[in-house]
Write a structure and sequence with these properties.
The complex is a heterodimer. By secondary structure, chain A is mainly α. Chain A contains two helices and no strands. Chain A has one domain. The longest helix of chain A is centred in the middle third of the chain and has 31 residues. By secondary structure, chain B is of the alpha+beta class. The chains are: A mainly alpha, B alpha+beta. Chains A and B meet through helix 2 of A and helix 2, helix 3 and strand 7 of B.
């Protein structure tokens, strides 16, 4: 998978590295902005209140 | 025998699958890479949940609380009528009968809480209701008022909930409270001053901590502030409860108490 990604990306080695860093940044910010909050609210909501 | 060799032999024997050695190696390789990627994301998520989002939310909540009270300083003071004579029916000297501040509608911020023991810049907004999404997890609030409990200034129990870990953790230091520590609740009228009395650990369904006299059916005579949070940390197995007793009310036109002023200056 990652080997294939490396092959598909165009350009010289350092251009590929830049592209991968940008890609990782985009994926990470999508995760932090939308995916992680959703996962936290849906699956591991800590309960702080007393309820019957 | 390594797993991939075993798979290879299996597929070689069962040639009806029609896989080449290379395809099998690829499938195993990609599966492994996906699993490792998933593992990295789980770790990233935990780091985000327990540290990153907690810290960012905490800073945002402190700023939001300070901004809310800043607004109250610019609008004309709307102190409700109350008896300012000293030594009134509460029986405590220098303790005027406080005005009653009506609790906000669901999600509406109507007060802030300032607690020196919780941090030098601790000022978090209190909103109506205990909805996780719009109040407890929210970066502009953090503390929620149980709407079925009494209003600020009323005889009875003013009960609030807040996270102990994650989402800014307003009550992260709840177990560090010491007897006599002051907790301030600021409204546009002024500051309700409470002093911490004791902690209690209860089951999650023990709603009698919200009674007008907690854990009792006695007739309410004093004013109690009840904080509820989760216990142990990062778990929902039990609840930690902190009780404080009303001490006095400081109207806004008399200026902020020294500890409150220190928090404002540090924030």
């Amino acid at each position: 998978m990652y080997a294939a990604l490396w092959r598909i990306l165009p350009g010289a080695r350092w251009i590929k590295i830049i592209q991968i860093v940008v890609l990782a940044g985009v994926i990470l910010s999508v995760a932090v902005e939308w995916v992680f909050p959703w996962v936290a609210a849906t699956f591991i909501q800590p309960e702080t209140s007393v309820e019957p | 025998m390594p797993l991939n060799i075993r798979f290879r032999k299996f597929f070689a024997k069962n040639s009806q699958f029609g896989f080449t050695r290379r395809a099998v190696d690829n499938v195993i390789g990609v599966t492994g890479e996906l699993l490792m990627t998933a593992g990295v994301f789980v770790l990233l998520f935990l780091g985000w949940h327990v540290w990153y989002n907690d810290i960012i939310s905490g800073i945002a909540q402190d700023n939001a609380g300070a901004a809310l009270t800043e607004e109250w300083n610019t609008v004309p003071i709307t102190v409700p009528e109350f008896d300012r004579s000293e030594g009134t029916s509460s029986g405590v000297a220098n303790s005027p009968e406080p005005p009653v501040t009506r609790s906000g509608a669901a999600g509406e911020r109507f007060a802030t809480m300032l607690v020196p023991r919780f941090g030098a810049t601790f000022e978090r907004a209190i909103a109506g209701g205990i909805d996780p999404e719009t109040v407890l997890n929210d970066r502009s609030a953090g503390i929620g008022h149980y709407s079925q409990t009494d209003d600020l200034g009323e005889i009875g129990n003013f009960a609030v909930a807040g996270h102990r870990t994650t989402y800014g953790a307003p009550f992260g230091n709840i177990a560090e409270l010491r007897v006599g520590d002051r907790l301030y609740i600021e409204t546009n009228a002024g500051w309700y001053v409470y002093r911490f009395r004791n902690l209690e650990y209860v089951w999650p369904n023990n709603t009698s901590v919200l009674k007008r006299v907690p854990e009792s059916s006695a007739k309410a005579k004093g004013r109690i502030l009840t904080l509820t949070s989760c216990h142990p940390k990062l778990s929902s197995a039990e609840r930690i409860i902190a009780y404080s007793v009303f001490e006095t009310f400081v109207p806004r036109d008399r200026g902020a108490p020294a500890e409150v002023a220190a928090i404002k200056a540090a924030g």
